[in-house]
Structures are given as structure tokens and as C-alpha cells.
Write a structure and sequence with these properties.
Layout (H helix, E strand, L loop, with lengths): L1 H22 L5 H23 L9 H24 L2 H8 L4 H9 L6 H17 L11 H23 L4 H28 L15 H23 L3 H8 L2 H13 L5 H19 L1
Helix pairs in contact: 1-9, 1-10, 1-11, 2-8, 2-9, 3-4, 3-7, 3-8, 4-7, 5-7, 5-10, 6-10, 6-12, 7-9, 8-9, 9-10
Length: about 280
């Protein structure tokens, strides 16, 4: 169950990143975050009401609030790092986020077997290579590296917090709802601040209504990924769940290949293959 839900997390996050990347070509990144998360919050609110999730309210929801505060900071740091570039360095470096939940799992006493340990090492190397790192000729600003490390720490922290936010399925719906509302409030405040400084909140011509399904997909896929990761981490070793969930860059690369006809570089193809081998070792270990 851990492997299945963790791999579902990678699929959902990879597709959400791909969709979010396409949307940010036409609208400000903050707008994409706020609109997509607002749609997700509305849907989750309806689910919470339908399932009676309010009965699960308790102190654990503070973990969801914390995840909602950390998430937008991590996303914005990541987007700013991508803007400074090179993307071929920034994207693989962000996969260091897996170190946070893995470290927590080891601290709590998890000890993967030799097969799983080998799978973790192979999968992590594969994920980094799948991002297509630039091995030469990449002038990287120190600020870009710092922002990427902040983003990686934030993403990894969200991994840990959302796992602790609930212990039941209905409680998970409530926790995800609280996280999304916090995301919207935090992102909305940041968007308001940028508008006050003169930056546009919407693309030229406004936000097209026909783009709303794409925003909804990005927001809901992100929510679903958080949910499947929480289930994976609660039903198996966090070290395994975190590594398998971190395979999303492979999905993003394959989506770009399939929908945008972007050609995979040899190093990316090799990375995807290693990630698959690591996944098989983890699943069979």
C-alpha cells in the first residue's frame, strides 16, 4: 500500500507541476497558486461537509495550518529560483526535499533493509538526473541556490507536517481543507502586497474562463497528492514513502515529452531508468 500510494503521489505532483508550469507562462505565479488553491479549498470544503469531517477537529490541525504557511513560501522560493536559473540546475537541486522526511523517519527509528537502502540511493540519483542537470556552462547565482534550498526545505517540511495532521480519512479531508485555506490566505496576502507595489495580478485581458478547468486540475491534483502521500507515510516506512513520492520530476519530464514534444536528453532518460530501478528495489524490499 505504501508503494502504491507514494507512486500515485509522484504521478499527481508531476502532472500538477506540469500544469502549473504551463499556466505560469500566461499568468503570474502567485495568481496561479491562489486561484488553483481557492478552487481546491471550495471542493474540499464540500467534501468535509459531506463526510462530517468537522467532527475530527482537534490539536492536530495545527500541523495542517503550519503546512499551509510553509507551502506557499516554498513554492514562491522555487519559482523565483527558476526565474534566476538555470532551470537544469535548480529543478534537480529541489529534490533534496526528500532528505527532510527521510531524516525524520531515521530519527524515529526506521531502519530500511539493504535492498531498500540501495533502492533509496538509486532512486534519488535517478530523480536528480531526470531533472537534466547542466554539467557544464551553467552560471548559477548564489541567490538561486539559496532560494532552491529554502524551497527544498519547505517542501520536505510539508511532507512531514501533513503526515502528522490526521490519523483518519475524514480527518485527512479536514486537514487538507485547513491547509488549503491557509495557503489561500497566505498567498492572497502576498499577492495583495505585490499588487500594491505595482505588479499585475492578472494576465493581459484578464483571467480567461476557459482556463478555469486547468486551474482546478492543478489545485485538485496537488491536494490529492498531499492526501495520497499522507496515507502512504501512515501505512509504511516514511523513508520509502518519501523517496517514491519524490519521483514526480520524472513524471513532469515525461509529460513535457508527451504533450509538448520536448526531447529528453540522454542524462534525463538515464535518470528515469535509474528511478524505475530504484522504485522496483523499494517495492520488492
Amino acid at each position: 500500500m505504501t508503494a502504491l500510494f507514494a507512486l500515485a503521489t509522484s504521478l499527481l505532483w508531476g502532472l500538477a507541476d506540469f500544469g502549473g508550469g504551463l499556466l505560469t507562462r500566461r499568468a503570474p505565479a502567485l495568481t496561479v497558486v491562489v486561484v488553483s488553491q481557492s478552487i481546491a479549498a471550495v471542493v474540499l470544503g464540500a467534501v468535509v461537509v459531506a463526510t462530517g469531517g468537522w467532527s475530527e477537529a482537534g490539536p492536530r490541525l495545527w500541523f495542517a495550518v503550519a503546512a499551509g504557511l510553509v507551502g506557499p513560501v516554498a513554492l514562491l522560493s522555487f519559482y523565483k529560483a527558476l526565474a534566476l536559473g538555470p532551470m537544469g540546475v535548480v529543478s534537480p537541486l529541489a529534490t533534496l526535499s526528500v532528505a527532510v522526511p527521510v531524516s525524520v523517519g531515521l530519527f524515529l527509528g526506521e531502519r530500511p533493509g539493504w535492498t531498500q537502502a540501495a533502492g533509496i540511493a538509486v532512486a534519488v540519483v535517478g530523480v536528480v538526473l531526470a531533472g537534466g542537470p547542466q554539467l557544464r556552462g551553467a552560471a548559477v547565482q548564489r541567490r538561486a541556490v539559496l532560494l532552491t534550498l529554502v524551497a527544498a526545505l519547505g517542501f520536505g517540511t510539508v511532507f512531514v507536517l501533513i503526515t502528522e495532521a490526521s490519523t483518519t480519512v475524514t480527518g485527512l479531508f479536514l486537514a487538507l481543507f485547513v491547509q488549503r485555506v491557509t495557503n489561500v490566505l497566505t498567498g492572497g496576502a502576498a499577492l495583495y502586497a505585490t499588487v500594491r507595489r505595482g505588479a499585475p495580478a492578472l494576465p493581459e485581458g484578464g483571467l480567461p474562463w476557459n482556463a478555469l478547468p486547468a486551474y482546478a486540475f492543478v489545485g485538485l491534483a496537488d491536494v490529492a497528492a498531499n492526501g495520497t502521500y499522507a496515507i502512504a507515510a501512515q501505512h509504511g516506512p516514511v523513508t520509502v514513502a518519501a523517496v517514491l513520492a519524490s519521483l514526480y520530476p520524472v513524471v513532469t519530464s515525461l509529460a513535457a515529452r508527451g504533450f509538448l514534444r520536448e526531447r529528453l536528453r540522454a542524462i534525463q532518460a538515464a535518470g528515469a531508468g535509474l528511478a524505475l530501478v530504484g522504485t522496483l528495489l523499494l517495492a520488492t524490499g
